[in-house]
Design a protein that fits this description.
By secondary structure, the chain is of the alpha/beta class. It has a single domain, classed as NAD(P)-binding Rossmann-like Domain (Rossmann fold, 3-Layer(aba) Sandwich), CATH 3.40.50. The protein contains ten helices and eleven strands. The longest helix is centred in the first third of the chain and has 21 residues. The protein starts with 8 loop residues before the first helix and ends in a 9-residue tail after the last helix. The mean pLDDT is about 95. The chain binds UDP-4-deoxy-4-formamido-beta-L-arabinopyranose (WQD). The site of UDP-4-deoxy-4-formamido-beta-L-arabinopyranose has 21 residues, from helix 6 and strand 5.
């Protein structure tokens, strides 16, 4: 289910191609509870994986009401309909953004949360708290909260990848669009941070490994787990310039860049201690930076202008 605010049905067509399955897909806005009810009536749902939400950090700081309504309001609407239909299992796409500025690194799940440096992170933090409170109040409810670090890459087939509308705000879609010459050069937001090369450090996790983390969480959820939190990251940090160089190596294309001032809401370094997910979920990372960049280049070079506009 997707309201198609930042996606198209073409990506779902490609999921069907890749899997050889016809995944039932619905264009629904989660704020439309009657449409949600229709879906729950038609399909026996055992668990909801909740990925929906706006996620542009800068935009979230300028449009608080839109983000609170879309990310939190729609989640409450979904949770209410789930309760009406006796669906008590949820896997939630949370974010490392709930940690705010690190008080220690690598960050484990015990790291303080709520000191978010941007409104996007606050919405993820509030939704985590809502799910935790529901699991406490209603003991048949189970939730697994997955705190994503920085998902990047594309499916190995080259058929699925990140294709944000407009100019990408995220680093790697921007880098790959520079490599295919859709964009002129990368702007690096600051090179005077307390990091090895002065540019910001993040924990870039391969999106296919991230997807496998959800499959592992679904198996784990069957154990009546209550509400549990897991970091999905690699435990390694790479700088902006590291990533640009890794992509140049993988693609054989130059990624020119210029240094600019810092971006509001950014933090110097952020990377995970992901040992709990490895231990409890049996989730093992498979792919490294080079492979992540190779698959991202395969996607972008096969789809230089992104997905086909929806026919
Ligand atoms: C990465 C680094 C930028 C663009 C993201 C998402 C958020 C959440 C957490 C999942 C930063 C630098 C970027 C550019 C640059 N995701 N950069 N030039 O800010 O870590 O947060 O991950 O829940 O939705 O925003 O990721 O890709 O925006 O930036 O220099 O044109 O690249 O300063 O250091 P970020 P990002």
């Amino acid at each position: 289910m997707d309201n198609l605010a930042n996606a198209g049905m073409d990506s779902m067509r490609r999921v069907n191609e890749i899997t050889g399955k016809q995944v039932p897909t619905f264009s629904i806005d989660m704020l439309d509870k009657d449409a949600l009810r229709d879906l729950f009536k038609k399909h026996k749902i055992l668990c909801v994986m909740h990925f929906a939400g706006l996620k542009t950090v800068e935009e979230s700081c300028n449009k608080p009401l839109l983000y609170y309504k879309t990310n939190i309001g729609a989640t409450i609407s979904l949770l209410e309909v789930m309760k009406e239909f006796g669906v008590y299992n949820m896997i939630f796409s949370s974010s490392a953004a709930v940690y705010g500025s690190p008080t220690y690194l690598p960050m484990d799940e015990k790291h303080p949360v709520g000191g978010c440096t941007n409104l996007y992170g606050k919405t993820k933090y509030f939704i985590e708290e809502i799910i935790k409170d529901i699991c406490t109040a209603e003991n048949q409810s189970n939730g697994v909260l997955l705190r994503y670090f920085n998902p990047v890459g594309a499916h190995v087939s080259g058929k699925l990848g990140e294709d944000p509308q407009g100019v990408p705000s995220k680093l790697m879609p921007y880098v790959s669009q520079v490599a295919v010459r859709r964009l002129k050069e990368l702007t690096v937001y600051g090179d005077n941070y307390d990091t090895p090369d002065g540019t910001e450090v993040r924990d870039y996790i391969y999106v296919v490994d991230l997807a496998q983390g959800h499959v592992a969480a679904l198996k784990y959820l069957k154990k009546d787990c209550g509400c549990k939190v897991f970091n999905l990251g690699t435990g390694k940090g790479f700088s902006v310039i590291d990533m640009a160089k890794a992509f140049e190596t993988a693609s054989g294309k130059r990624v020119p860049y210029q240094i600019a001032g810092r971006r509001e809401g950014d933090i110097a370094s952020c990377y995970a201690d992901a040992s709990l997910a490895e231990k409890e979920l049996g989730w093992a990372l498979k792919l490294d930076l080079a492979k992540m960049c190779e698959d991202l280049w395969h996607w972008q070079s096969n789809n230089p202008t992104g997905f086909r506009p929806d026919s």
